[in-house]
């Protein structure tokens, strides 16, 4: 059973391995519902694979949970888990070591790895924070589609991570096709979909006071009477219409008296007469604002939704320095900028020529943001390019020689598994992996060696990754190690996969 499960996990890792690192390739996914998309993000790729083997599903869940926890390292976690399993399977089948012994030693090795990473990690200080964050962003973005505009997205991601005060992923995203990805930018506010405003409407309002309302009378003053036919002669119809107009104007006067110069009606239209009436007073109005946009406006501007106008309504207005209608790729949008309430939030406008590129931009930017937030949270960074995988592996081997016996065999297997990440980085770069890995092993086995010697993905040689500015957050690597050991333990413990089929009799009875 173990061999079957391990083979399946290795097949999954085989699909992902060509996407690892800055020279990783993309996958083109043809999805019946979403059409074509290209990606090299591990979690996204796995989400689109229709997996039906339980071991592959378990491994995919580990990658998804890495995505939810820290947002990056979703490819590495699958590759490392599969390699740990492959090595364990060799120990079980050829050396007759029981899986529970392997699990015990893997756990010990995992603690050793995480402790060494914590010990070696560099600390973020007020002096180095900005430059270290830039290096982390460059490393994360370098392996993604937005890597072609690395400096632009690096600066966007660093600024966004600093705006996210509490490090939650409070990000508003607005996406529009029709321009190159270099036109993506951070917004100093929010952006909404917008329909064409009335002819007499202002297209921009400075020092906006925003009324966010849910007033159905603004869409029509008419009471709704269904299935009743009333014959009116021309004069009577005019009188009724005048009453309606007067009522609408009364509501508009009440709205205007709150001091609002921008009005959003949530979920309902604004009657064209009311719109014109308010436009003539210099008020920008928009109806049919959907719930998610209402929440976004409320968060950004501090506006509170009102359902009727009273003396309290003025105090419920939101504020923004500017509300402006803009044209993006032949479609209108409304930009609300200068919002004081957006502290701890960031909002981003993504532009790209196609919808699939837009999605990939968002995923890649999110990876960078997660890596930066993790670094800011843990205040610890490490070198990339597989340097710590190699360093820990060598230190582990040196320690294992003292232990001897079964423990030494398992630790050596764990150490060899760690080398899979730098090995795949080398092969994806088209370099001679075995020569680079043996150079790195030699370097890291010397007591004076720097722990930061890793793979130079441009020249195909070894270099000091920290000096070269290839940095990562240490907590992401810690999570990769812990998650991979968890995944391999889960799969090593399985001695039988049981597939339960629905009860036929129930099925025949039509209950299922
Ligand atoms: N310029 C670089 N030089 C050397 N190594 C790099 C460079 N850029 C990235 N890497 C390495 O590439 C690996 C990350 O690759 P990648 O981002 O494709 O995978 P992941 O983070 O595991 O998964 P995903 O990003 O799909 O969630 C890390 O080990 C990182 O150190
Ligand atoms: Mg990554």
UniProtKB/TrEMBL annotation:
Domain of life of the organism encoding this protein: Eukaryota
Family matches, as InterPro entries: Chaperone_TCP-1, Chaperonin_TCP-1_CS, Cpn60/GroEL/TCP-1, GroEL-like_apical_dom_sf, GROEL-like_equatorial_sf, TCP-1-like_intermed_sf
Record flagged with keyword Ubl conjugation: no
Keyword Transit peptide: yes
Molecular functions (GO terms): ATP binding; ATP hydrolysis activity; ATP-dependent protein folding chaperone; unfolded protein binding
PROSITE patterns: TCP1_3
Sorted UniProt keywords: ATP-binding, Chaperone, Nucleotide-binding, Stress response, Transit peptide
CDD domains per record: chaperonin_type_I_II
Segments passing through the bilayer: none
Database matches in PANTHER family: CHAPERONIN
Family: Belongs to the TCP-1 chaperonin family.
Biological function: Implicated in mitochondrial protein import and macromolecular assembly. May facilitate the correct folding of imported proteins. May also prevent misfolding and promote the refolding and proper assembly of unfolded polypeptides generated under stress conditions in the mitochondrial matrix.
Record protein name field: Thermosome subunit alpha
Annotated source species: Acrasis kona
């Amino acid at each position: 059973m173990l061999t079957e499960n391990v083979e399946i996990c290795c097949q999954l890792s085989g699909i992902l391995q060509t996407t690892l690192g800055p020279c990783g390739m993309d996958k083109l996914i043809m999805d019946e519902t979403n059409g074509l998309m290209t990606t090299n993000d591990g979690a996204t790729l796995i989400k689109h694979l229709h997996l039906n083997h339980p071991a592959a599903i378990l491994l995919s869940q580990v990658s998804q949970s890495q995505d939810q926890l820290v947002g990056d390292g979703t490819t590495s976690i699958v590759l490392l888990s599969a390699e740990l399993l492959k090595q364990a399977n060799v120990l079980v089948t050829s050396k007759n070591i029981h899986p529970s012994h392997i699990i015990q030693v893997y756990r010990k090795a995992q603690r050793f790895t995480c402790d060494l990473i914590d010990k070696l990690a560099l600390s973020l200080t007020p002096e180095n924070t900005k430059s270290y964050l830039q290096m982390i962003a460059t490393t994360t973005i370098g392996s993604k589609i937005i890597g072609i505009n690395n400096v632009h997205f690096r600066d966007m991601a660093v600024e966004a991570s600093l705006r996210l005060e509490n490090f939650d992923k409070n990000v508003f995203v607005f996406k529009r096709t029709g321009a190159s990805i270099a036109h993506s930018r951070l917004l100093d506010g929010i952006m909404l979909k917008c329909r064409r405003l009335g002819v007499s409407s202002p297209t921009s309002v400075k020092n906006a006071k925003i009324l966010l309302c849910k007033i159905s009378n603004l869409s029509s003053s008419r009471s709704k009477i269904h299935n009743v036919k009333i014959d009116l002669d021309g004069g009577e119809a005019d009188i009724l219409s005048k009453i309606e107009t007067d009522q609408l104007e009364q509501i508009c006067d009440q709205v205007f008296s709150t001091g609002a110069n921008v009005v959003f009606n949530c979920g309902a239209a604004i009657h064209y007469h009311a719109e014109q009436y308010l436009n003539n007073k210099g008020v920008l109005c928009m109806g049919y604002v959907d719930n998610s946009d209402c929440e976004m406006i409320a968060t950004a501007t501090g506006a509170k939704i009102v359902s009727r106008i009273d003396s309290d309504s003025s105090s419920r207005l939101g504020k923004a320095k500017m509300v402006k209608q803009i044209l993006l790729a032949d479609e209108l949008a409304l930009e609300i900028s200068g919002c004081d309430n957006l502290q701890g939030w960031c909002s981003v406008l993504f532009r790209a020529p196609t919808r699939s590129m837009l999605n990939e931009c968002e995923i890649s930017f999110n990876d960078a943001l997660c890596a930066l937030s993790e670094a800011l949270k843990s205040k610890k960074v490490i070198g990339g390019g597989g340097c710590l995988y190699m360093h820990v592996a060598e230190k582990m081997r040196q320690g294992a020689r003292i232990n001897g016996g079964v423990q030494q065999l398992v630790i050596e297997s764990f150490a060899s598994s760690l080398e899979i990440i730098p090995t795949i980085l080398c092969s994806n770069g088209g370099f001679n992996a075995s020569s680079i890995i043996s150079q790195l092993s030699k370097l890291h086995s010397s007591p004076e060696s720097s722990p930061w010697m890793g793979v130079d993905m441009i020249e195909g040689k070894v270099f000091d990754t920290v000096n070269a500015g290839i940095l990562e957050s240490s907590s992401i690597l810690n999570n990769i190690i812990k998650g991979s050991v968890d995944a391999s333990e889960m799969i090593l413990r399985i001695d039988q996969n049981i597939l339960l089929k629905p009860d036929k009799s129930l099925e025949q009875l039509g209950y299922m």
